[in-house]
Amino acid sequence: MxxxxxxxxxxAPFSLYVHCGFMRRMARRIDTYLxxxxxxxxxxxxxxxxxFADAEISxxxxxxxxxxxxxxxDAIAKMGELGxxxxxxxxxxxxxxxxxxxxxxxxxxxxYWSHSVAxxxxxxxxxxxxxxxxxxxxxQKQAHLPAxxxxxxxxxxxxxxxxxxxxxxxxxxxxxxxxxGWVINGEKCWSTNAKWASHVIVHALTDPDGxxxxxxxxxxxxxxxxxxxxQEMSGKRVWEQxxxxxxxxxNVQVAADSLLGEEHNGFKVMATTLNGGRLFIAxxxxxxxxxxxxxxxxxxEEREQFGAPIGRFQRVQDVIVDLDIAVERGxxxxxxxxxxxxxxxxxxxxxxxxxxxxxxxxxDLLVQAMxxxxxxxxxxxxxxxxxHNDLFVTRVGEGSNYALRDLIVRPLRS
Length: 414
What we know:
Layout: H1 3-10, H2 21-25, H3 29-37, H4 40-57, H5 61-67, H6 73-81, H7 100-111, H8 115-135, H9 138-149, E1 155-158, E2 174-178, E3 181-192, E4 199-205, E5 216-222, E6 228-232, E7 244-255, E8 259-260, H10 266-302, E9 304-305, E10 308-309, H11 314-343, H12 348-373, H13 384-396, H14 401-413
């Protein structure tokens, strides 16, 4: 990791790291695996974000949940001060110059306590800044990346629609050319970070008669443009502290230079963006397994039944061993795929496999961990029920597992 990132993270106030509770004092099993998988500098970065989450997120998350509030602005500002919103943005644009491994390490550190918190900078980067980095013009990068890196702006990716989920390559939102640029109409939903977004990247249909994969275009639209209407989606019981919005476009006029990437090449922009995003979602699943492993193994040694800690019973040991195996396998797989992503050699199938497997294994094991801990698992303050609920999103987010299995099997049928 470049020196500037290390310096920026280290400059965070010391007070962020002192009130960490019992989890700070107890060694985490995932740290054992990460320490031998990444460089010392990257592990130091992970450790600082982990300690920040222990100090700033862990003591507050229960209050946010019970008050039904989104991640507060002050918590987002502190993540910005730590440099997290500029993590993989190049230094010449004011970012930290990190790579996708750093982004995933941040997801593991923050996701240990809360997917909602982790996805806030995670989506801002992997779904917001990343498409601009990969497909934007130099003028677009100069105009937006410095503010994104400072956390002063946030881009949201407008992809999913009320009538389009897995069939994202054929959007119903349209963009039509006119003398001034483009006019956008339609609705996007399930847009993460919509509340805080300054701009939305709109994946829109621009050539209905084009060949498959060449029908859509990505455009950048300001959220305060006339005709853009945002509403937070109500009734959500997963990722409850994350902003999830519906964005309606009513004859929204954007300039010709709002084009992101090539015309009618929006599918490529979308697919490249989602490849890295699936690794981040997989990291959240692994973070949940890591939390469950520490919680379950500690509880099993403290809880006594029939005159002995339940950790002495074979069935309980089996669950803990399965959790441990899943953490080691998931972290090893993720670090390998992140390296391939940064080299530009990661296939869509490999990213999909990792996301499908990590999310499904985590969901299955969370239920077993809760059974080991019994009724206390249902209490919000114990933490497992939060991960149990949030893991549902990892199975449907960034492409549902059912749809991704179709993608994975294609090379096996050729």
